[in-house]
Design goal:
The chain is mainly alpha-helical. It is 51% helix and 12% strand. It is built from 6 helices and 3 strands; from the N terminus they run E-H-H-H-H-E-E-H-H. Strands 1-3-2 form a 3-stranded antiparallel beta sheet, with helices on one face. It is elongated. The mean pLDDT is 94.
């Protein structure tokens, strides 16, 4: 569920530019980057009230991990960026996905489908009408909503950091 989100902020461009060093330090302080990282701030989200977490045993075992990682970014090509467009407007841009939740779901279903994990492994195919296929689709839909919730939270948190640094 990797994806991008960009949010146009109602922010003073010169204020953001003049405080960018401090703002980026604050972003790194409050947003967790890296594989397997947990968020230092517990994020309560309605997504965790979805009955699917209890309906599928795999998800029941991943819920705490997902709760701990919501709002973390990851590594590699995952990022948080603050930029100015050609009209001198401030944007926050992010790119990341469903974090350890999505990876754990994929790994589980690859193995359940008789496959092996790896870049050059043969694909695993199962029918969407099978019990395994139905569970997979439900889990992936939840992982997608989880990724959106994480991107929403990170963009909101970065906007809050930028507002705080401009007003100080």
């Amino acid at each position: 569920a990797c994806g991008n989100k960009a949010v146009l902020l109602d922010a003073d461009t010169e204020g953001v530019k003049s405080n960018i060093y401090r703002s980026m330090n604050e972003i790194q302080k409050h947003i967790s980057f890296g594989v397997g990282r947990k968020n230092d701030e517990r994020v309560d989200h309605e997504l965790f009230d979805d009955p699917l977490w209890d309906a599928i045993p795999l998800l029941r075992g991943l819920k705490e991990k997902a709760m701990a990682q919501l709002g973390t970014v990851g590594s590699g090509n995952h990022y948080v960026d603050v930029f100015v467009d050609e009209l001198s407007r401030i944007w926050v841009g992010v790119h990341f996905g469903s974090r350890g939740l999505g990876h754990s779901i994929c790994t589980h279903f690859i193995k359940q489908g008789g496959g092996v994990d790896g870049v050059h492994a043969a694909p695993v195919i199962f029918s969407e009408d099978s019990d395994l296929g139905e569970q997979y689709l439900k889990c992936m839909e939840l992982a997608g909503r989880y990724a959106y919730a994480g991107r929403d939270w990170v963009c909101s948190r970065v906007a809050k950091i930028l507002r705080g640094n401009i007003l100080e």
